[in-house]
Here is the input.
Amino acid sequence: MNLHEYQGKEILNSFGVQIQRGKVASTPDEAVAAAKSLTEETGTGWHVVKAQVHAGGRGKGGGVKLAKSLDEVRSLTEQIIGMQLITPQTSAEGKTVHQVLITEDVYYPGESEPEEYYMSVLLDRAKGRNMIMYSPEGGMDIEAVAEDTPHLIFTEEIDPKTGLLPFQARRIAFNLGLSGKAFKEMTKFVFALYTAYVKSDSSLFEINPVLKTSDNRVIAVDAKVTIDDNALFRHKDYEAMRDLREENAVEVEAREVGLSYVDLDGNVGCMVNGAGLAMATMDLIKQAGGEPANFLDVGGTADAERVETAFNLILRDPNVKAILVNIFGGIVRCDRVAQGIVDAYKNMGTINVPIIVRLQGTNADIAKNLIDNSGLDVHSAIEFQEAADKVQEVLS
Ligand code: GDP
Ligand code: MN
Here is the structure.
């Protein structure tokens, strides 16, 4: 589950990570009130108005603006709330901004120049270990840094038996070129950040920039936080942070009815039982020259109602040119699934894409007969290859 910057910062701060302070606002009045109270707390009169959407690159898209007065806080908020923010990470139509984060300005002048660093914590799946990735060249162009000067991206691998060790935090501060107070602040920051990552059951933290202020404090200015969905059951407070406006409508609906559905870009919808078979089916579609339009695991109980719900979800995607149903009848009998498909098809009335059904397992032959004799635009198959050939046939 992805979070907004303001929510991510809240979580970081709850584990002692120093952050750029801010308050979220949904209206210009709220924004001005937020700015006023921040000024009372921090004493700086300047603020930043930051669009809250689930996408990075907001600065480049005009979603992050410096306000030098309360009037500017108001006018920038009026401008940003309701806008379609287009960034390098959004689609061409962009994302609607519903809220802004009003923050203190932390790039104030002082004894040294503020410096921007990049830092992320993530799981290296190949090694099965958490990793801290960081760079002295943080800020808005980290992708270019990775491309042009990859030697400026460092990694620190964490052994799960020991956790992050003090020498590792010091190495990070050293590689970032820090000394004195800033060095100590950075080691504290890294420890707090790593603790937050582990305790919050996150799968990604990306803090870009981490800022060394002109008075040598180290703070998170941005926060991209992804919580591991599988751990949400033990973080009810994070689950409550879910913003459905940011999520794919079909995926939200699927989750509500307990179907595991992921929207993809292709043209062949798939309905499968079991995640492994779903992966194999997506491979099959690719081999047949198609592209999967979704991942959909209907689970063990593929009754008529579930099949119908699943069809409905798949058909909401206008790119779907064919649907491949690939179900193994182990616990559930194939003939029951076949009946479910036929019933769903008849109930829905308006399915105008061809459906290829592969049912294998208990009563597969009865199931095939049921489908072949239904009089519907449904192609049956028992073998994997047969199904693939039929997909190819209906696509061409
Ligand atoms: P992103 O563009 O979505 O990654 O949003 P960020 O939160 O990283 O903000 C974008 C940029 O705005 C940062 O890289 C900074 O250069 C700038 N910025 C953020 N906070 C401040 C601030 O307090 N003062 C000033 N002057 N600039 C800021
Ligand atoms: Mn950023």
